[in-house]
Design a protein that fits this description.
about 230 residues, alpha/beta, Rossmann fold, six-stranded mixed β-sheet, about 30% helix, about 25% strand, globular, binds adenosine-5'-diphosphate, binds magnesium ion, molybdenum, nucleotide-binding, cell inner membrane
Length: about 230
């Protein structure tokens, strides 16, 4: 089973010509410097951007042939984007709205993300890391075919990042939903991803198992913290 992405898109000052194939389920990280086109790929995959040419195939289903609302792609942005006037519980319920039957168990997800004690709270009272955990939970409860996350930790300070990474790693270990994860932080990629898609200036310059591609590109996988290292 695999996730296959092909994209061609031209902005006035930038062109993306991207193609990769990754095992699914699994976490596939798009990694590369700021401005190399990572968010463009995610926007095209999720349908937020109407790309010049895009083809996304997941387990034989051509998602890009479906209108965005029927692709069932869960999206998590850099900033949580929770509904501020809804409690955590109601934000999560929003994810359940119209969710078809699927492998995600709401109780297990809430437990894995460590957000059970936050259900009555409102987004403004949460830390950045808590907010992101709720945003990820909400996206998952909609039973997405694919979860895409665009630098979900980039807005957090180092302490919050360290706090949320173990939750993401635990989730990764039990999740059967394929994930496309954008980051320009090697530590996150090393900790969370199975497959690394290395990008530069709108092109893919390497794709394969994280260790292999990182070694070939001479990227340091050394981690600042303990468990979960590859
Ligand atoms: P990354 O996520 O890797 O930092 P992006 O995909 O956001 O990179 O951007 C890649 C390039 O595409 C940048 O040069 C950016 O200015 C350009 N770009 C992104 N979105 C638009 C847009 N809506 N209109 C014009 N140019 C854009
Ligand atoms: Mg980006």
């Amino acid at each position: 089973m695999s996730l296959d992405v092909f994209l061609r898109h031209r902005f006035p000052d930038f062109s993306a010509d991207v193609s990769f194939s990754a095992p699914a389920p699994g976490v596939t990280a798009l990694f590369g410097p700021s401005g190399c086109g990572k968010s463009t790929v995610l926007s095209a995959v999720s349908g937020l951007l109407r790309a010049d040419e895009v083809r996304v195939v997941l387990d034989g289903i051509v998602l890009s042939d479906l209108p965005p609302e029927r692709r069932r792609i869960g999206v998590v942005f850099q900033e949580g984007r929770l509904f501020p006037h809804l409690s955590v519980r109601d934000n999560l319920r929003y994810g359940l709205r119209r969710a078809p039957p699927g492998p995600i168990d709401p109780d297990e997800t809430v437990e894995l993300l460590g957000i059970g004690h936050l259900l009555k709270r409102y987004p403004a009272t949460l830390s950045g890391g808590e907010r992101q955990r709720v945003a990820i939970g909400r996206a998952l409860l909609s039973q997405p075919r694919l979860l895409v996350m665009d630098e979900p930790l980039a807005a957090l300070d180092a302490a919050r990042k360290a706090e949320i990474l173990p939750y993401l790693a635990r989730l990764r270990d039990s999740l059967r939903t394929p994930v496309l994860y954008v980051s320009h932080a090697m530590e996150e990629v090393a900790r969370l991803a199975d497959t690394l898609v290395l990008m530069e200036a709108g092109r893919v310059i390497g794709c394969g198992p994280v260790g292999e591609i990182a070694a070939r590109a001479d990227l340091p996988l050394a981690l600042g913290n303990d468990a979960g290292a590859i």
